[in-house]
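Sample entry (201 residues):
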Amino acid sequence: MVVHYLADTDQSIIAIENGYVTGRKVGDTLIDLDLHSVFAPEHMSLPFIANYVGKSTVGDKIFRLSTFYIKNPKGDVVGLLNTNVDISDFIAMQSTISKELFVNENAKLPDGMLQPQALVVSTKSMIESTLAEAMSRYGFPDAAALEREDKLRLISYLCDHNIFVLKGAVGIVADKLGISEPTTYRYLQKLKAERAKSGKE
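Predicted structure, serialized as tokens:
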């Protein structure tokens, strides 16, 4: 069980129980899945989201995750209560049973099975992994060598994945894209204005 206080996303964990299970501790940051799932606009109006899957960077454990939103009287999300259940043994058991049912050692698990993602646990690595994901998606070989419009596409992708809620994200992204922090802020303002005009925000 983990409690996050969102006033400082770079050191958001203020309480944790059984931290040895996930390898996390008080003072650690949010994780990739918190940004991609928990901060999705369609989720933040809910009281909680449950049963999404993540893979720990410690011992390759697989967890079933649930998040409960902590809100102030105005309804703003100010904290998170996360619960993590280790389901590694159940996944291994399911794999074994599936192979036995198919009587084929090369049989694959059913298509509907959730595929866990790794839990990236540092702010910098989280930003870098999401940027690398965007680079791969758009087929960009070198972020710093891109034209302005392509850098805007990358920043838009990072916005969609809520990367800029992280402390220090603007500086890290600016460095990776070979631009200044003021330029990055201008790009963000441009995207916000365009989205507001199109009704996306």
